[in-house]
Amino acid sequence: MGQFDMVKDFFLGISRSRISLIGGMIVTVTTPFLLSYMLADTVWHIKNPYFGAAVYLALGPVFLGGLAMIFVGAFFFRGERDVHLFTLQYMRRYFTEPDMFGRLRRNVFLIVLLTSVNFAVFSMFLYRAYHYMESTQFCGQFCHVVMAPEHTAYENSPHSRVSCVECHIGSGADWFVKSKISGARQLLAVATATYPTPIQTPVHGLRPARDTCEECHRPELFHGDKLNVTKRFLPDEQNSTVHDVLLMKIGSAGDRAQSSHGIHWHVAPENKITYRATEHNRMVIPEVTLTKADGTTTVFRTSDADELLAGTGTEGDMREMDCIDCHNRPSHIYLQPDEALDRKLAEGDIPQELPYIKQQALEWITADYETTEVARQSITDGLNSWYKEKYPQLISDQPELLAKAIEGVVKAYSENVFPDMKVTWGTYVNHISHGPDFDIGCFRCHDDMHESPDGKTISADCNTCHTLLAIEEKNPQILKTLQGDDL
Ligand code: HEC
Ligand code: HEC
Ligand code: HEC
Ligand code: HEC
Ligand code: HEC
Predict the structure, then answer these.
(1) Same domain, 263 and 298
(2) Are residue 278 and residue 411 in the same domain, yes or no?
(3) Is 199 in the pocket of ligand 1 (CB under 6 A)?
(4) Which of 82, 189, 343, 449 pairs with 144 at a CA distance of 20 to 30 A?
């Protein structure tokens, strides 16, 4: 036998087994591509979701499959010449016969080298593949039609630099595994087109917010009030600017220095709030239970609670309140038509100088369209013809004004409405407020109708949560005072 017997036998074994041979070919062909792609990704952090999918979901597994085939073939499907590769007798001979052991020792270097190269490629692959599967590109863009609403809203939100997994998975191995199982289910649903449109909310398997939001935010350290100044625009000829000025009583979840109070009182460790909803969507909450640290409980119920909960089984949909019961849209924030246009006007994407643009745009973006393309066309045509008829002089003098407005209006629509996924205005309710009709968000509980046995109610007093300093005022005195204009 020659010097590199074991290595030679190994290759012989491979060449004699068709399975190994095919595996060998696969590995030879894929390795240079895989290595150079992974290197490119490591250096340049390639953001294209399909590049990642091609490398980590297709090429990588093919490479691993090839490797596996080589070994399976060499072990189990030997060819005409029985090479006994890696069998017990073969090993025993190598380790007991001094002559052969000497040869093995000489080959150790080669074996160690080959194994470490394999190990390096393999672990680099696992590492990069892990990062890809956790990336916003994979979660948000790979299934682009399905995730378009969530991804678009996310991109425009204050959390656009926080990756999807930081809220949806968080840290720890158990949630990682859970997420991969549900991820596989979701990929299957996309592949077989059995996903719901729109995607259901709330997310019932969502990790408790304590493990995600609180990795970054600490409501026990909040304090004081927060001034919210919102610019709005009226549907009149001037698109007049008005202001809402609210002092939000943010409060605190309580820390050593201060006791819990205000809005974040709900998430203080000493206050545990559980509630029962009539349906999975948590829109109607007939019963709320407050459990204090000393164990005393107060149950607040509406007068029709028994009736409402009767049809829902014995429990109702029971849940412990956390951040998500108010901040259910921290990142996927869909605006109402009015708000969406106000934002674009405030940011200058829609020029305020264009008469009646708020009123006209509101009409066009709230109509029903089959696709975003149809919407874009109809909005463009509709606004063009209206302004040509009513303001021909203005449109011929300053055509860019209308062109810019149309761009802004189409954006206000396409950032919030996604006909492909049946997401339209109001599909996803935001619970951080109560809405103009006082029926969602805080008012699911704070309606003065939830009563404890001793007659206390969950307060609907307008000053519980905020002080209304100005509502839709053109020149609010409070802003002049704050800006020092009246000194
Ligand atoms: C700041 C935290 C946060 C980030 C970042 C985030 N999400 Fe979410 N997401 C949520 C919360 C909270 C909900 C659930 C709302 C509920 O249960 O009412 C949600 C819900 C969803 C839903 C269910 C449909 C819906 O809108 O309720 C999908 C799908 C989703 N997210 C995908 C994504 C994707 C994709 C990304 C990354 C591009 C992402 N999320 C990033 C917090 C986040
Ligand atoms: C990885 C860190 C991280 C996680 C996790 C995270 N956030 Fe944030 N959040 C931030 C940062 C950073 C900002 C500030 C963004 C800015 O000011 O532009 C922010 C801002 C906010 C704001 C203020 C938004 C505004 O309009 O000014 C709220 C409310 C909020 N987060 C709630 C949540 C909730 C609820 C969760 C859990 C579902 C969450 N965050 C998870 C980092 C995080
Ligand atoms: C009872 C409802 C409610 C709960 C529960 C709640 N929040 Fe808030 N939070 C609010 C409201 C309302 C605001 C003010 C929003 C605004 O700017 O108008 C707010 C503001 C915030 C802000 C912005 C603070 C600032 O100074 O700008 C952050 C961050 C935040 N919440 C994080 C959290 C986290 C994390 C949790 C869970 C531990 C949580 N909240 C639980 C209602 C709630
Ligand atoms: C699931 C029910 C529920 C929801 C939803 C809810 N709350 Fe509450 N809230 C309560 C209960 C219960 C109390 C305590 C009532 C009592 O003991 O008088 C309370 C108390 C408060 C208090 C007084 C805290 C103190 O200092 O004692 C504020 C402020 C408040 N809530 C704000 C909000 C805001 C803002 C929202 C919406 C963003 C909201 N709540 C949503 C149940 C709820
Ligand atoms: C349980 C807490 C709570 C109570 C009670 C409450 N609000 Fe609000 N209100 C909020 C929150 C939270 C917001 C949202 C602030 C934001 O968007 O930043 C809000 C916003 C508003 C706005 C601004 C418009 C908007 O939708 O952004 C107005 C106006 C308003 N409230 C009026 C009232 C009036 C009038 C009452 C009394 C009938 C009342 N609120 C009672 C929590 C409350």
Answers:
(1) yes
(2) no
(3) yes
(4) 343
pTM of the model: 0.88
Q: Are residues 309 and 438 in the same domain?
A: yes
Domain coverage including residue 390: 337-415
pLDDT at 342 over 90: yes
Could you tell me if residue 308 is inside a domain? yes
Strand bridging mode 271-277 / 317-320? antiparallel
Please tell me the total count of domains within the chain.
4
At residue 417, the 3 state secondary structure works out as coil
Q: For residues 26 and 63, is the Cβ–Cβ distance under 8 A?
A: yes
Quote the crossing angle between the two packed helices 337-347 and 357-365, to the nearest 10°: 140
25, 117: one domain: yes
Q: Give the Å distance between the CA of 325 and the centre of ligand 4.
A: 11
Exposed, middle or buried by CB within 10 Å (0-12, 13-18, 19+), for 419? middle
One domain for residues 325 and 345: no
CA of 437 relative to ligand 5 center, distance in Å: 11
DSSP 323: G
pLDDT tens column, 205-225? 888 998 999 999 999 888 889
| 170 CB within 6 A, ligand 1 | no
pLDDT in tens, 308-326: 888 776 566 789 999 999 9
Residue count of the chain: 487
- Residues 380 and 402: their CA atoms lie apart, in Å, by 10
The verdict on residue 212 lying in a domain is no
- Rounded to whole angstroms, the Cα distance separating 319 from 303 reads 21
- 8 A C-beta contact, residue 344 and residue 358: no
Residues pairing with 248 in the sheet: 226, 466
39 lines ligand 2 (CB under 6 A): no
Atom 43 of ligand 5, nearest CA residue: 465
Which carries the bigger pLDDT value, residue 104 or residue 347?
347
At which of 101, 133, 165 does a domain end? 133
